[in-house]
Amino acid sequence: MSTDKNITSVLKETRQFPPQTEFVAQANVNAAERERLAEWAKSDPDGFWAEQGRSLHWFKPWDAVLDWTNVPHAKWFVGGTINASFNCLDRHLAARGNKAAIVWEGEPGDTRTLTYQQLHREVCKFANALKGLGVGKGDRVTIYMPMVPETAVAMLACARIGAMHSVVFGGFSADAVADRNNDAQSKLVITADGGWRRGKVVPLKANVDAALEKSPSVQKCVVLNRCNTAVEMKPGRDVWWHDLVADASADCPAEELDSEHPLFILYTSGSTGKPKGVLHTTGGYLLGTSLTHKWVFDIKEDDVYWCTADVGWITGHSYIVYGPLCNGATVVMYEGAPNQPREDRFWEIVAKYKVTILYTAPTAIRAFIKWGDQHPKAHDLSSLRLLGSVGEPINPEAWIWYHNVIGGGRCPIVDTWWQTETGAIMISPLPGAVATKPGSATKPLPGIQAEVVDKQGHPVPAGSGGFLVVKRPWPSMMRTIYGDDERYKATYWSNYPGVYFTADGARQDEDGYIWVMGRVDDVLNVSGHRLSTMEVESALVQHPKVAEAAVVGRPDDLKGEGIVCFVTLKQGTNPSDELKTELKAHVVHNIGALARPDDVRFSETLPKTRSGKIMRRFLRDIAAGRQTTGDATTLEDFAVLAKLREDDE
Ligand code: WT7
C-alpha cells in the first residue's frame, strides 16, 4: 500500500505544535470553548445541533432536529424550510452588499471581483434564465465548467430554484460527462467554450457535444463564452449564456425548500467501475459546511480566504462556494495551473490579494517543494495567518516545509480529514485549540463521533491500526447514492449496523489523535483525486486489443499514488511500447487526464484466487517493486502464486 511509507514516518513523528498565544487570543474557538462544545455535543446532541442550526436563516423553523428512526436515512431539521442561495447571498446584502464575495483571477491574468450585491444579481438573473429553459424544482442540471465565477453563479442559481446541480470536473472526458448525464437524467448542461489550463484552452464545449450524442435526457445546453474560441452551436439546443441573461429579470425570490430538499449530486469513485452519485440535501449540508468553515478556518470579517481546489470536487463545493459564502467571506478563485506562467503563480496570488487563509493539498505542496524555495521566497507571504491541507495524508516532511517556508513558522496548519460523502470536515485541529502533530488530522470536531475500530467494531488499542468509522449521524452526511439506495446501504452501513464506514484505515495514538493512513478498499488517491481501480480496468478492457486488466496503486512521491496497469492481450496481439502509449491515451480518452496510467505492464496471466478474484495485494507488491515471497517477482509466476495465495484476499 502506498501508505506504508507514511505509516513508518508518522509512527516516528513526535513533534508537537501547540497553538501560539497571539493566535489563541483572537481565535473563534479556544481550547476551553472547544471542550465545552465537545461535551455539550456528547451530552445533548439535539440541543447542540439545534443551537448551531440557528446560525442559518430559516423561512420556517424545524419541528425536530434529527429523525434517525429509518436508519441509515437521517433527516435533519425536520419540517424546517430554507434556501442555500438565500443564505449565501440575500442574507448578506444589508451588511455586506459591497463586500467582495469572489475575487477571481483567470490563468491569462484577467481579473474580476464580484461583490455580494453583484453576485446576488447575477444569480437571480441566471436563475430566471434557468426557469425560462424549463428547469424547475427537483430537475438535474449538469455543470461542466472551468474555474470562473459563473460556475458558482450556476450552482447558486440551481440552489435558488430548487434544481439539483451535478458538477462534473472539467478534467473529465466526454464519456464521463455522458455517464453522469445519464445516471442523473440531467435535463440541462451548463458549460463554456473552454477554460485555460497551462496556456491552452480545454475544449469543454466540444466534449459536451460528444457527450450529448449519448445523453438523450439533455434537452438544452447553455454555453459561456470564456475563451473566445469557435464552437458549434446546435440550433434549438445550444444557447449562449450572455444571450440568456441579457433580458433576464434580476428579481428572483429564493424558493422556500424543505430542509431535506436535495441540493446537489456529486459523482465520486467507489469500489466498482460505476461512479456513485453522492446526494446532499440543503439544511444539514449548509450547516456542516458553514460551521466547520467558521471553526476550522477561524474565519473573520476581513479575511481573504483562498481554497485552491477545483469547484468540480467536494472541496470546491463546500469550501469555495457554500461554506465561505454562507459565512459572508471573501473568496479568492483562480482558474489555472499553479505553474503557469511560472512556478510562483500561487505565491504571486497570495501576495497580490493579501490572502490570509490558504487551503491546498499535499500533492501540490510536494510539487512546490520540488520546484524550489526560491519561488515562495520571491514573494511577500506575510499576509498569511492560517494554512490548511486536504485530500490525502500529508507526510511530515511536507507538513514541516509548508509550516516553515509558506507559513513562516507562525501559521497553524489544519490537516482536515473528510470525504465527498461526509460533506464537511470531520477530523481536524481547531487552530486556536488543538496542538498539531505533523501527519495527524488530530481529533474529531465537536459533534462528530469518529472512532477507530476492528473488524468486529470494537475500539482498537492506542497505536494499532483499524477502520475509521463514525458512530452518530451528522448534519452534512450524504443521504443516499442517487438512484441506488441499495448501494448506499451496502457500501457505508453494512459493515457495522447503524455505523458509517469510511473505507479508510487509521490508528489513534495515546493522546487520542487520529492518523489516517489511506483507503482500505479499491479506491486510489492520485494527486488527491479519487479513482477506482475498476474504473480504469473497465476503460482498459474496452480497448479491442485488451483481454484482461488489473489496476493497482503504487507509492508516488509527488502524486501520493501512481496508477499501474497489468494487462493481458488478446491472442495474436504483440506487446509493444507503442501499444503501451496507445492504452494510456485510451484511458485518458475514456475517463480523463487524471486517470492517465503511470505504467502499463503486459503479462501472460493475472493472479487470481480460485473464485476468480484478482489478487491485488500481490500486484501492489509487484507494482511497488517490493519482494513478495522468495524470488517470485515476475509476472510469469503469477499462476503459481495465485494457487498458493488463494485465501489471501
Ligand atoms: C478520501 C476522500 C474531502 C476532501 C477531498 C477528498 C482521503 C481526505 C484526508 C486527510 C488523510 C485524507 C481519505 C478519504 N483524505 N482528506 N486530511 N488525511 N486522508 O475527498 O475525493 O471524497 O476523498 O480522501 O482517504 O477517504 P474525496
From TrEMBL:
Residues bearing PTM N6-acetyllysine: 613
The AMP-dependent synthetase/ligase domain, residue ranges: 90-481
Gene Ontology BP term (one): acetyl-CoA biosynthetic process from acetate
Residues binding CoA: 197-200, 315, 339, 527
Cofactor(s) the protein needs: Mg(2+)
Major enzyme class: ligase
SUPFAM superfamilies listed in its UniProt record: Acetyl-CoA synthetase-like
UniProt entry tagged with the keyword Acetylation: yes
Domain of life: Bacteria
Acetyl-coenzyme A synthetase N-terminal domain boundaries: 36-88
Keywords in alphabetical order: Acetylation, ATP-binding, Ligase, Magnesium, Metal-binding, Nucleotide-binding
Record's keyword annotation contains Ribosomal protein: no
InterPro entries in the cross-refs: Ac_CoA_lig, ACAS_N, AMP-bd_C, AMP-bd_C_sf, AMP-binding_CS, AMP-dep_synth/lig_dom, ANL_N_sf
Domain annotation AMP-binding enzyme C-terminal: ranges: 535-613
Recorded GO MF terms: acetate-CoA ligase activity; AMP binding; ATP binding; metal ion binding
Catalytic activity line of the entry: acetate + ATP + CoA = acetyl-CoA + AMP + diphosphate
Gene Ontology CC entries for this record: cytosol
Pfam families referenced in this protein's UniProt entry, alphabetically: ACAS_N (PF16177), AMP-binding (PF00501), AMP-binding_C (PF13193)
PROSITE patterns linked: AMP_BINDING
Family: Belongs to the ATP-dependent AMP-binding enzyme family.
HAMAP family: Ac_CoA_synth
Official protein name in the record: Acetyl-coenzyme A synthetase
